[in-house]
């Protein structure tokens, strides 16, 4: 099955007070549909490949959102990576949304807001990790089922029923600091401490790497 044919008809979003947020990170299959309709050629494709950190940032020939690690992905449900902040924002506009703010992302990731959350979740409680009181179930550099990126929804459902808010891949948000943009949540390359709310990470807006993806938000009226 091609990644394009795996693309979903629309994003699965969780409604929270004032906004909604994607239940999972945007996938290769979803991004393929966007590219099919818009003809976007990403910066990583133009430059010949995205980056990976191995003793410093190294460009990996052929690593793009289509082939995150140089070959076609095993599943179109892997997160779309090797995308700049502007490319992620363009996808969200096309999908009828926008990138979340850092405050929205943190609210969704750490504070349970569902009216009747299933056990053991407690409405109104702010958790240490997006996975709850413990980082168990997330895709970090520590012992787990995924040596690299996990497909969307493969890790344990966390706060507000969201997946991969902690680890898997960093996620672009809209907050700006000069030419830099903020990323949230950590990634599979890092340990569990990077999943915590007090971690602040900024990256050049035009940067792209195998560890950086995104999800979209939408205003509710």
Folded structure, characterized:
The chain has 221 residues and is of the alpha+beta class. It contains four helices and nine strands. It has helices at residues 28-38, 43-47, 85-94, 102-110, and strands at residues 13-16, 19-22, 51-53, 57-59, 170-177, 180-184, 201-204, 212-213, 217-219. It has a four-stranded mixed beta sheet with strand order 7-6-5-8. The longest helix has 11 residues, at 28-38. It starts with 12 loop residues before the first strand and ends with a strand.
Rg over CA atoms, rounded to whole Å, is 16 Å
Q: Mind summarizing the main beta sheet?
A: 4 strands, mixed
Structural class: alpha+beta
Report mean pLDDT, rounded to a whole number: 94
| Helical content band | 10-25%
H/E element sequence: EEHHEEHHEEEEE
Low-confidence stretches are 1-10
Sheet with most strands: strand arrangement: 7-6-5-8
How much strand content do the residues show? 15-25%
By DSSP, the count of extended strands is 9
Number of helical stretches of at least 4 residues: 4
Task: Identify the overall geometry.
Answer: globular
C-alpha end-to-end distance: 38 Å
């Amino acid at each position: 099955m091609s990644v394009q044919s795996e693309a979903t008809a629309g994003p699965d979003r969780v409604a929270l007070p004032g906004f909604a947020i994607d239940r999972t990170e945007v996938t290769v299959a979803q991004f393929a549909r966007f590219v099919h309709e818009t003809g976007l050629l990403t910066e990583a494709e133009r430059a010949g490949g995205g980056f990976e950190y191995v003793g410093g940032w190294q460009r990996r020939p052929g690593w793009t959102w289509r082939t995150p690690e140089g070959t076609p992905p095993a599943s179109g449900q892997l997160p779309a990576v090797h995308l700049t902040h502007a490319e992620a924002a363009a996808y969200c506009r096309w999908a009828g949304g926008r990138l979340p703010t850092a405050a929205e992302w943190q609210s969704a990731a750490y504070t349970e807001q569902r009216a009747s959350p299933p056990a053991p979740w407690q409405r109104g409680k702010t958790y240490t990790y997006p996975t709850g009181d413990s980082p168990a179930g997330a895709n970090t550099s520590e012992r787990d089922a995924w040596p690299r990126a996990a497909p969307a929804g493969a890790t344990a459902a966390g706060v507000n029923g969201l997946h991969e808010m902690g680890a898997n891949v960093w996620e672009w948000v809209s907050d700006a600091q000069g030419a830099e943009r903020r990323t949230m949540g950590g990634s599979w390359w890092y340990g569990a401490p990077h999943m915590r709310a007090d971690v602040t990470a900024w990256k050049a807006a035009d940067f792209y790497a195998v560890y950086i993806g995104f999800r979209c938000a939408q205003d509710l009226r």
